[in-house]
């Protein structure tokens, strides 16, 4: 899932701060509480952005006319310049609302859902950041009849505030759907219990994880209904279906599908890119933008999501180093075949037989890694990620021109994110 | 859950037909397929209603002016008179639509969801039956201005057809939410795996059951959005939250809550009565009825649901006989304390200590049964069920008077259901 990778950024960030996020859940929660103790949401927000900053070693795009660009630096000045900081205050508000939203009538359910928001403290802010930046990036005049213009005279500010609130609501709903999908993804299959239990399940149990996810989905649905926009409701309900379809595709891959690049990209869209692309589109629809603009917003989200996942697949093999086998190798160990290996098979067709055996035997993993090392698989996966990142940036560049400084800054931040996603090494 | 009990009716019905529905899932599916082979939906419908008829030994309310009433009989004539038969054709259409709806892009997911519809072949029709009867029962003039009346002149029939389609959609959505909740309820907690695995989980695995449920929820959400009625979307989204809350309340009861009748009734409302009551209300809202009528529809559903569950709790102790201990004793074995035992504790406070030990020890179950047998617990639970059934019937009787024969027949059928629910013995 999208968050998993982004959570890695968080882990690394916290590690840099000598806080081991990848430790036991109890310790992680304690660490989180410690971070939050002064001002729960404000503090974690600023620390978090600092952490996120540390992990991007690539180039940073100039975010403001008077701002200085640093490459690979992590100075205090730069911390205030990153895309995330542009919407930091709104993100705090949003986090507050999400937190109060999970307070249900049954304390255990609330703590279950909240626990997961804590666990995903980093990842949960990436999507809202993109969506709030997109809202500003599309903050431009909407085609309107003269009658509409005259009837809106004098209430433009009120309408703008109302629109922003509705767009923030999309950001919250997106986060709820995302966390719900994570809760449900972590429910173990009967056969999986032998592989060891994830931290979430060991804390909550399968059933409570399912119920907490359902609770979030129902809250998301109530919030969606309040937006009173049928197209947006359908769009985000469809996303839930995509998340399910993607997860099921991964669970039930036939040996033929396992070797199919098209199948892999379709699954990646469903599992990773559908949520961010459709919620970007929802931001445009709520603003009353044209179908063309809504499509560009969708294309940005889709390509950003695909680029992110492709890099995630590469990092699963390489980890922090450039060499193979230094990553967690989590995908291949679970029999999940991703882009690097699919490209390697194109060069070495004999590798397909090994892949089709499913990697239950660790010797097969070694053989696959050897082939992968001799192939262009890693590089071609990176190239494909670059292609999608470029397409995402092009979508932003294709938006109708606008002179407003806030709009331009947010668009640059969105383009900056496309660079960050592909240049990250963690 | 609501369905579980109604499924028992089905099982008994099929047993009467010498088809053992409580056999292995594969066999059950084969039996179902056999029943459906000629005309999948029409055949199972007529056979099913016949079965359902057999299991009600109570009095039947006259359903039509020219129809003859039989008490405790199961003649072919009577099979055509029961509440279910009034909406049989529509139910077939609905079942067809549900079936085509579960055909997703991923065959395994579709078969997973469809498998469950097959499993719940009986129960899945109870809620739609109530809702379609309610739709007809409320088919009466809506307060309308003269301007609205003149603008609708000549299109009344079209509007009526459109309304009916939207109300059928509520019936479908209700069924989807219900089946999704069953799928998720059946996901096992880590601690539960030792208790033995339910048939669904053994066939699908935890994760696929979760995904199939999510899939149904997302389809329900898309269908809800298409109704373009914010109040109805909120109402049914709230139901999902209630189902979750009820299940969580049951899972996380403290020893104090375990002895609290109010807590028990609240949980029962969330788990059993919220879905049917709120979907009855949705039927009224879509018809544009007044708040008073919508409340009566809600009250009918709520009290029918509560009465049903109370009888279910009694039957879990008594089974088909009048004596204790002949039921499956499933609740008490799982440490779930229901109305009969709560009433018994009021008479014998010393029983509370036994209850608080949680029934891990089977000797405690025997002690509790002995106390229960000496108490009025069973009778008081039945009396409470009767009270709610009467309140449900009163809600129907309080609807604005109407001379239309279809309307009157549907109202009688809804009242008839309140008798059937409390007089059933299986």
UniProtKB/TrEMBL annotation, chains A, B:
<dbReference type="InterPro" id="IPR033749">
    <property type="entry name" value="Polyprenyl_synt_CS"/>
</dbReference>
<comment type="similarity">
    <text>Belongs to the FPP/GGPP synthase family.</text>
</comment>
<dbReference type="InterPro" id="IPR000092">
    <property type="entry name" value="Polyprenyl_synt"/>
</dbReference>
<dbReference type="GO" id="GO:0046872">
    <property type="term" value="F:metal ion binding"/>
</dbReference>
<dbReference type="GO" id="GO:0005739">
    <property type="term" value="C:mitochondrion"/>
</dbReference>
<dbReference type="GO" id="GO:0004659">
    <property type="term" value="F:prenyltransferase activity"/>
</dbReference>
<protein>
    <recommendedName>
        <fullName>Geranyl diphosphate synthase</fullName>
    </recommendedName>
</protein>
<keyword id="KW-0414">Isoprene biosynthesis</keyword>
<keyword id="KW-0808">Transferase</keyword>
<dbReference type="InterPro" id="IPR008949">
    <property type="entry name" value="Isoprenoid_synthase_dom_sf"/>
</dbReference>
<dbReference type="GO" id="GO:1990234">
    <property type="term" value="C:transferase complex"/>
</dbReference>
<dbReference type="GO" id="GO:0006744">
    <property type="term" value="P:ubiquinone biosynthetic process"/>
</dbReference>
<dbReference type="Pfam" id="PF00348">
    <property type="entry name" value="polyprenyl_synt"/>
</dbReference>
<keyword id="KW-0496">Mitochondrion</keyword>
<keyword id="KW-0460">Magnesium</keyword>
<keyword id="KW-0479">Metal-binding</keyword>
<dbReference type="GO" id="GO:0008299">
    <property type="term" value="P:isoprenoid biosynthetic process"/>
</dbReference>
